Amino acid sequence: MPGAAYYVDAGNRSYMAAGLEQAIRFDQGRTDSSNSVIRVAADVSQQALRARGELQGLPILLKDNIETTDMPTTAGSLALMDNAPGRDAPLVARLRGAGAVILGKANLSEWANIRSSNSISGWSAVGGQARNPYDPERTPCGSSAGSAVSVAIGLAPAAIGTETDGSITCPASVNGVVGFKPTVGLVSRTHIVPISHSQDTAGPITTTVEDAAIVLSVIAGSDPLDPATAEADARKVDYRAALDADSLRGARIGVMRYAVANYSAETQAAFERSLQAMRDAGAELVEITEGPNQQGLGAMELTVLMTELKADLNTYLASTDPAQVKTRTLADLIAFNEAEPRETVLFGQELFLAAEQTKGLDDPAYLEARASSLRMAGAEGIDRMMRENNVVALTAPTTSRAWTNDPNDEDRAQGSVSRMPAIAGYPHLTVPMGFDRGMPVGISFIGGKWDDAKVLSLGYAFEQRTHARRAPDAVQ
Q: What residues are labeled active site?
């Protein structure tokens, strides 16, 4: 069925936007609020009345690390509470130009989960703890927690998240919605609070693959201020038009069997049902029982992220208004956090401290880590698996059911397939595939560089075959 974006036409866009604004404010006033939205835009109704373009007034929430002209951008940190340089990120300008209504800013894991190795997903000092609507005692995952939660409970038909490694796909999976991490370089990162220029990207979170494709078609494109996007205009297509409900027929899909064993029996059963649905749709499934050599990949990725965090965040902070943002460097942020008990009440800043010790983008250790990790995740990882097995995409469970927020609880994440596509910069789509003890679980479709349209189409065909998503209030 056509997604929400299709139905929002000139006749109802103002009504829809106003209704969702009221719903957000009602949610914010509840004692059991989802805490998924940090701030509502001041001119929602006026935006809707002015809206023109292919999105036809579609209300969209933005993760609060994406800049807009009309609202502060905090990344969840008290240090950026007044960060309002009055500029739209290029992806926001594209959304507005297409007639989207920017409803407000979604909560997130503070600093996109890069401040501490012990951070709590979905928590920020500015927004508090975003709650999983299927069970508020369990994680909403992160860092795009508020984006996923708000879409799951109907506060917006679409939201924009960002991902460095798992920050779109994990929250989308555990909150029972669709999340798409595009090829790095398809969507501009300019005026988005950064972690890593090698791995950062923005992408859509929606309830349907079709809506994700509609939004991606608008936000994709080259940006002269972001060199990584140089090929984007030549590579982008109309992603909605490229969707084919019959695209699984004859498609060879690689099943990453080696990545499944640690999941619960319920998640494995949901995955097996999903595989059978693909077979029934005409797909040829190829079992991949041994994964590529990933020894040391996590350590290499951490070296890259820590080095780029310091360099990229310092560059971003220097671009802000010094009258609004007193913390001009990562070192300043560390000092701010040390002096502000509201920031460290739940966890510290070990990763910030590690990043501050890095030696810059010319450091041979960093350059070796980036080259080696890119090779292992890309050429010797996803590319090799696809080539040697003659498949057009890879599939596996995205991650486990949501685990508890209690750090002392033994219920933990049981796996994830986000690392290789994150490091390689390749497209990664998660689509709801079922439930594990009442909690949503998603299935991943992963492709090679610039395979975004193909990955979305395969996920769309799966979604049309299974219709596995159920809203939180529909789950017994």
A: 63, 143, 167
